[in-house]
């Protein structure tokens, strides 16, 4: 896991710089700056909207006496998506929007569920019960 995180921290900023330079040469620096600001504003609005909807889903699940499993994965995806949308760059913006839009978030949640289940089967995740 640490290797993937290190790779992400090293490669993504380098790719972002390259894409930003290319886009600046292609459409002009002011348009790139405007686009970065616009994606940040739209991303913040979308993260707020999706976050509030997820909170309502958690409250509904809890009021019916059901565990909010799906809503918790939604919340994690929305948190990560909102965080990467605040970083300037087109690659992180694409990742952020993928995590924030419910239709594109669904396959990622299925993948996360499989990874979590695999980790639990291997015993690398310990669940503490009272």
Spell out the blueprint of helices and strands.
Elements: H1 2-27, H2 29-63, H3 69-85, H4 90-100, H5 102-122
Helix pairs in contact: 1-2, 2-3, 2-4, 3-4, 3-5
Structure summary:
With 130 residues, the protein is mostly helical.
Overview of the structural elements:
The chain has 130 residues and is mostly helical. The mean pLDDT is 86. It has one domain. The protein contains 5 helices and no strands. It is flat and about 55 Å long. It comes from Halobacillus salinus. The chain crosses the membrane at residues 5-24, 30-47. Keywords: Membrane, Transmembrane, Transmembrane helix.
- Percent range of helical residues: over 70%
Give the low-pLDDT segments: none
Determine the strand fraction and express it as a percent band.
under 5%
Number of domains: 1
Q: List SSEs in N-to-C order.
A: HHHHH
Alpha-carbon Rg, integer: 18 Å
Shape: flat
| Arithmetic mean of pLDDT | 86
Main structural class: mainly alpha
Biggest pleated-sheet summary: none
**Could you tell me the number of beta strands?**
0
State the end-to-end CA separation: 29 Å
Tally of DSSP helical segments: 5
